[in-house]
Amino acid sequence: MLTARQRMQALPALLTLLSLCLALAAPARAAGAADRAVPRNPVVFVHGYNADPGVWGALRADLRATGYTDAELFSFGYDTHLSVNEVLAGRLGAYVDQVRRETGAARVDVVAHSFGSLVSRWYVKFGGGAAAVDHWVSLAGPNRGTSTAWACALWDQACRDMTPGSYVVKKLNAGDGTPGAVKYATFWSDCDEVVNPDDSVPLAGAANTPVGCLGHNDLLGDDGTSAGVRAFLAS
To answer: Could you list the mean pLDDT of each consecutive 10-residue stretch along the chain, which spans 235 residues?
Structure first.
């Protein structure tokens, strides 16, 4: 057993050892705190023509399974018969601003299907979205127009916006089609019955992924497409 004198003599060494242990542990604690301090971007889903937010059920479930919470997943609902540039892109911008206020996030990720790709691209390119969007994903988006839109172009503004050579399509693809520091990705099918030609979807400057022979709406529930979207959002 140590005497009182021996214990007093050993005390400085013990204090030095304790200080060293605390110093070594501090970086690990700081690193862990830093990791927790970097939140995921909220995801804003933008549905397509004649659709509603319900189309995102499968992808939302897949994201929740990988750790997202409902408080990080938002679906923009809108009237799909209105003008992309005059009305809808601005409304999407206001919605994104609301999401950022609610979550405290500096930027969001946008996942769009079909016509929603044009709405969200206009917001990013011309509506200030390049500063608010981190990842942008287009599933089967008519990014250079689709000939099937001529079937309803006579009476529907959104259809006119989707036609090849429309004002919206020309403006979006003039100059840099993927501007800013936003990360862009598209997923497209070579059996798409709505987007014609099929290769209207890919964009220069984006990560363009062919998903095989899937129908236009099948990309919304396809496991491979979902896995690709989730990997891209994590990049």
So the answer is: 47 42 41 47 98 98 97 98 98 98 97 98 98 98 98 97 98 97 98 96 98 98 98 97
Q: How remote is the C-alpha of 207 from its chain's centroid?
A: 13
Measured in whole angstroms, the distance separating CA 83 from the mean position of its chain's CA atoms is: 22
**What predicted TM-score, i.e. pTM, was given to this entire model?**
0.84
Task: Give the CA dihedral 66, 42, 125, 113, nearest 10 degrees.
Answer: 50
* Contact residues for 44 (Cβ-Cβ < 8 A; gap 6+): 74, 75, 76, 92, 95, 96, 99, 108, 109, 110, 111
Query: How far are the Cα atoms of 112, 186, 193, 216 from residue 213, in angstroms, in the given order?
Result: 20, 15, 10, 10
* Cα separation values, 207 from 24, 55, 185, 188, 193, Å: 42, 23, 4, 11, 22
What's the rounded Cα separation, in Å, for the pair 134 and 156? 32
